[in-house]
Specification:
Elements lengths: L1 H21 L8 E5 L7 E6 L5 E5 L3 E5 L7 E4 L7 E7 L5 E6 L4 E5 L7 E5 L6 E7 L2 E9 L2 E7 L7 E2 L20 E4 L2 E5 L6 E5 L7 E4 L9 E8 L5 E7 L10 E4 L7 E2 L11 E5 L4 E6 L2 E5 L7 E4 L5 E4 L6 E4 L5 E5 L1
Antiparallel strand pairs: 1-28, 2-3, 3-4, 4-5, 6-7, 7-8, 8-9, 10-11, 11-12, 12-13, 14-15, 15-16, 16-17, 18-19, 19-20, 20-21, 22-23, 23-24, 24-25, 26-27, 27-28
Length: about 350
């Protein structure tokens, strides 16, 4: 019996030590592990599926895919559109992705064979400009600048096979638009949709019923110039949303560039503490450590207190930052084909 007791005690200690090691909480990100890619395109579209599978898209009609965490990449030009900027991409799985082009033509393409072929699923009217996409299960939405007095709210119910401009899209101001900096100026979760308008009229639009009814809410983010406003949003819990932005014409300007809502976007307040250290075009929430990570062209910042205070942790600049679908890794993409994975 004594021998059995000793064995059980040793097993208990080993399991306890193992659990202790697995529950170590990192205090801060250590930086970015930059990964070589076969392109020099500006990559604003980014969609990691797992720690191994990542899709990206960008200028020159570029698409990219890795199945081995960036060791090797497949890439190409979507349907020969080498003058088009695909500023958002939504990876569904290893073989399926939906890519959205801003500017003209304002098109949405889909691949189901790992990028070998792309089929056009939507083309907007002349003058249309698409800014970003968000998906929740099989439903997806895309936001586009105001056309003929209405925001372009596109909806798909079949994972991007078909799209329609919703008749219930809210009215918008002449020249109104949303920033297409990282595809993250729109969110979708359950029946809720949020999107941010840009420039001198930076507001939050919210629909609680899949886009049939809309409310518009003012925000305190900097918005005195057309180059200023809200660029990216992320949900941190059922009620909480954090948004970042600033002025893309002044990358180092750290002024009124982060705000928080605790009531699903109805009211917004500037954060009370230290702001992100410049214009920020992407933000992501890493629930594993309770971190918010935000990126812009002059560097990267993180917050451990739901966005109330920020600390710079890297001089590496990016356009977009996204967490994979399994919530185990965070990736960023930027100018000149740059892609990186967060190190902690």
């Amino acid at each position: 019996m004594k021998n059995y007791a000793t064995v059980f005690l040793l097993l208990f200690l080993l399991v306890s030590c193992s659990k202790s090691k697995n529950t170590v909480i990192s205090e801060k990100p250590l930086g970015w592990d930059k990964i070589e890619t076969p392109t020099t395109a500006s990559l604003r579209g980014l969609s990691p599926i797992t720690e191994q599978i990542v899709w990206a898209s960008g200028s020159g009609g570029t698409w990219l895919r890795t199945l081995d965490a960036g060791e090797t990449w497949e890439s190409g030009i979507i349907d020969g559109l080498d003058s088009v900027d695909f500023r958002d991409i939504e990876g569904i799985d290893a073989n399926t992705a939906i890519a959205m082009a801003s500017g003209q033509p304002a098109v949405i393409y889909k691949t189901i064979d790992g990028g070998k072929t792309w089929e056009k699923k939507y083309q907007g009217p002349e003058g249309a400009f698409l800014d970003g996409m968000a998906f929740y299960k099989n439903a997806g939405y895309a936001i586009g600048d105001v056309v003929e007095g209405k925001w372009m709210i596109l909806q798909t119910k079949d994972l991007g096979e078909t799209w329609k401009w919703m008749e219930s899209s809210p009215p918008g101001p002449v020249g109104g638009g949303s920033f297409a900096a990282s595809g993250s100026g729109i969110l979708a979760d359950g029946d809720n949709i949020w999107f941010a308008s840009a420039g001198k009229d930076s507001k939050i639009y919210h629909s609680p019923d899949n886009g049939f009814h809309w409310e518009k809410y003012p925000t305190p983010i900097v918005q005195n110039e057309d180059s200023q406003g809200i660029f990216s949003m992320v949900r941190i819990d059922v009620e909480g949303i954090v948004a970042v932005g600033g002025d893309y014409a002044q990358a180092d300007l750290s002024y009124n560039n982060c705000m928080v809502s605790l009531d699903k976007g109805k009211t917004w307040n500037l954060i009370p503490g230290k702001l992100p250290s410049g214009y920020r075009s992407g933000i992501e929430f890493y629930s594993r450590f309770g971190w918010l990570v935000t990126v812009g062209p002059n560097g990267s910042d993180f917050s451990t207190n739901r966005g109330d205070d920020w600390e710079r942790f890297s001089e590496e600049g990016f356009h977009a930052v996204k967490i994979d679908h399994t919530t185990t890794s965070i990736w960023a993409s930027g100018a000149k084909g740059k892609i990186a994975r967060l190190v902690y």
